[in-house]
Design a protein that fits this description.
The complex is a heterodimer. Chain A is mainly alpha-helical. In chain A, 70% of the residues lie in helices and 1% in strands. Chain A has helices at residues 3-10, 18-21, 26-60, 79-87, 89-121, 128-140, 143-153, 160-168, 187-196, 200-211, 215-223, 228-256, 260-266, 279-289, 293-321; strands spanning 63-64, 74-75. A two-stranded antiparallel ribbon of chain A has the order 1-2. By secondary structure, chain B is an alpha+beta fold.
């Protein structure tokens, strides 16, 4: 069971009612004590670094104060929220930027990972293990190094990317060529390329899932006259939907927090033309550059609400398109 | 009969040929995709060995090279490719002029200056291969890489030990014991994976920096890591669930307590999973950026590699060869560890993501 399918099956099995919880006797009580003792490191950490800060964060959002002068904190009720939702154009601008990037980069990343896994799973491939390791290697390159290398390889004049495209016959080099990091129309594609160096885990998980597809299914499909493409679409894709679902949730959560690439490349200036003003960059500026603790906490909570809404939406729609083998749904 | 046999073997041969063709073309496709995928890496290595002048010259060769020069009468001159009636000559440019320039032939300096009509700016430089190994020590010293590496390593190792220990205990608790609200707690644990860290960050930051005065130190990053992490707990729990209970029962009959059983029976069994989790955390710490960025602000001595390289990139953005050398240096350790431990590592990723 992967992490998320576990969640949907955990409900119901063996969960004790509140009353039963306090009626534990003898051996059961000893077991419960040991269990709680073992999980206590996480439980304490959860209380201290998740639960309490989340609640306090919500409390912060009702105040207007900066870190340098906390004694001047002023209770403002819902003003931070109304400001964020109705008066501050940056909220929606940066959210829009984040979603626009997600819509471009998410499908490209997920489809690349799936197709590469199909290729690396092919029975006709020679040198499978070496190729798998090499395709995974860029994921091990620290993101900072990847950003620095990609920003140079995408240089319109001297970068190899444009020179390679030119070899294929498309004019790309020079001022009138493809200016990946300066052109508002290319910037999301450029950032997506950098992200492609991080799809190794998705490839691996797809690959493991492909190996788990029973061969009888392909045999049956081929007897029914299904070609390679038809088999891919009608057998492989449905069988790996749990993995696609898992990758989708993790990617969405990750993209909401997209920060490092725009920050390293242009220090949060939004260059070119504000296209890289991501929501997380805006949050960073408000909370840590301007030290607006109240407004920063509001922005953070809003991010949480949006993330939760998307996750709930995905889980709710998941039952219609995610296929869990061996489970009747 | 013989005819039939021959047909069969013809068929066999055709089938084998087709098989071979399919194998070759699929492997070729994979190799082409791989070289496109790894191209920036090769670019990074090659460019990190060039001179600064070469990195910014679009006409320069792909391979690390330097411009050829020629010493003539106590001065050094660049050698250019000069088109003449007798083909392209490699001559050193001595006297630059707008419409005509004077050159010297390095092979025959005694012949004296040669007048050439045309714009010298249009002429291409002559290069010879030359690898600038020196960029690496220079990059290392310019950013004080030793300090960045030390900071990153200490942070990664300290938090790795802490988080793996805490996660192992927690995972064992979830794997083997029944206690009230176990499922609710487990769902909350998994829930923290999809929780954006930002939502807890502002009060945590205010508390660490203003109340405890930990700004500019690693403590705000190290302390929370000591309480485990949901990914690690999940992976270790999955692994513990596969260990047969008989082992623990035998230990208990021998009089070992729960703690003793866990440490001396379970943990040794779980070495592959513990290794995987340790590596995950190590790589996470190596890449950690947002936390160090906000908490260390103002204390450059404490910078990890990520923040250090970001600053370096901002200050020396034109020194492409040094920036790339630094980028390559920063990936050596993670890549080496990965290649040495890839089996365990890959298994760990698969366990968290796929039905087991």
């Amino acid at each position: 069971m992967d992490m998320f399918s576990e969640l949907s099956t955990a409900r119901g099995q063996g969960s004790r009612s509140l009353r039963a919880a306090f009626r534990l006797v003898g051996a059961e009580r000893a077991e419960a004590k040991w269990g709680l003792a073992f999980i206590s490191p996480w439980l304490i950490g959860f209380a201290l670094f998740y639960f309490v800060p989340m609640v306090v964060s919500l409390g912060f959002s009702a105040f207007d104060f900066t870190l340098s002068a906390p004694e001047e904190a002023r209770f403002v009720g819902l003003q931070n929220w109304t400001r964020m939702l109705f008066e501050d154009p940056k909220t929606w601008e940066t959210l829009f930027v984040t979603f626009k990037f997600a819509i471009i980069s998410l499908p490209i990343g997920m489809i690349s990972a799936f197709l590469l896994a199909v290729l690396l799973n092919s029975q006709h491939l020679i040198g499978k293990n070496v190729l798998r390791t090499l395709f995974y290697a860029p994921t091990m390159v620290p993101l900072i190094a990847a950003i620095l290398i990609w920003s140079r390889v995408m240089n319109p004049h001297t970068g190899w990317l444009n020179q390679m495209i030119e070899i294929v016959g498309i004019p790309a080099v020079g001022m009138d060529g493809l200016r990946w990091l300066d052109d508002p129309n290319l910037i999301y594609l450029a950032y997506t390329f950098i992200g492609l160096w991080g799809i190794g885990n998705a490839i691996l998980i797809n690959l493991a899932s492909l190996q788990g597809v029973p061969t009888e299914l392909y045999e049956a499909a081929s007897i029914d006259g299904a070609g390679w493409l038809r088999q891919l679409w009608s057998v492989t894709v449905p069988m790996v939907t749990p993995v696609i679902f898992y990758n989708l949730i993790l990617s969405v959560v990750g993209l909401l927090q997209y920060f490092m690439v725009p920050f390293v490349l242009n220090l949060g200036t939004g260059y070119p033309e504000g296209t890289t003003n991501f929501y997380m960059v805006y949050f960073y500026k408000q909370a840590f550059s301007f030290q607006n603790m109240g407004y920063g906490a509001t922005l953070a909570w809003f991010m949480f609400v949006i993330g939760l809404a998307i996750t709930i939406f995905l889980f709710a729609t998941g039952r219609y398109w995610v296929y869990y083998a061996g489970e009747s749904r | 009969m013989a005819q039939k046999k021959k047909n069969l073997s013809d068929y066999e041969i055709a089938r084998q040929r087709r098989d071979l063709l399919v194998r070759a073309s699929i492997t070729l496709l994979a190799l082409i995709l791989l070289s496109v995928y790894l191209m920036p890496l090769i670019y990074g290595v090659v460019t990190s060995l060039k001179t600064k002048a070469q990195t910014s010259d679009p006409a320069a060769p792909l391979f690390p090279s330097v411009a050829v020069s020629f010493d003539y009468e106590d001065d050094t001159y660049d050698v250019l490719q000069v088109p003449t009636e007798s083909g392209i000559q490699e001559w050193a440019l001595v006297k630059k002029g707008r419409r005509a320039s004077q050159f010297i032939d390095p092979n025959n300096p005694a012949a004296g200056l040669i007048e050439w009509e045309g714009n010298w700016r249009a002429l291409a430089t002559v290069y010879e291969p030359s690898i600038q190994w020196d960029n690496y020590p220079q990059a290392w010293n310019t950013i004080d890489f030793a300090r960045l590496l030390f900071n990153t390593l200490v942070y990664a190792i300290v938090t790795m030990v802490g988080t793996v220990t805490a996660s192992a205990f927690t995972a064992y608790g979830f794997a083997r014991f029944n206690f009230p609200f176990k499922n609710v707690l487990f769902m909350m644990l998994i829930g923290t994976i999809v929780l954006p860290p930002a939502v807890t960050l502002v009060p945590t930051y205010a508390f660490f920096v203003n109340v405890l005065g930990w700004g500019g130190t690693w403590l705000p990053l190290i302390v929370p890591a000591m309480f485990g992490n949901a990914y690690n707990v999940f992976l270790l729990r999955q692994y513990f669930l596969t260990i047969p209970r008989e082992m623990e029962e035998a230990a208990e009959i021998d009089g070992a307590g729960k703690l003793r059983t866990f440490v001396s029976v379970i943990l040794p069994q779980a070495v592959p999973a513990l290794t995987a989790v340790s590596l995950f955390h190590f790589f996470f710490a190596w890449n950690d950026f947002f936390g160090p960025l906000i908490y260390l602000a103002g204390n450059r001595d404490a910078n990890p590699i990520t923040v250090g390289l970001t600053e370096f990139n901002g200050l020396y953005s034109t020194e492409t060869q040094l920036i790339l050398a630094a980028a390559i240096i920063s990936m050596i350790l993670p890549l080496t560890i990965f290649f040495l431990a890839q089996r365990v590592f890959i298994q760990g990723i698969v366990i968290t993501g796929v039905d087991k």
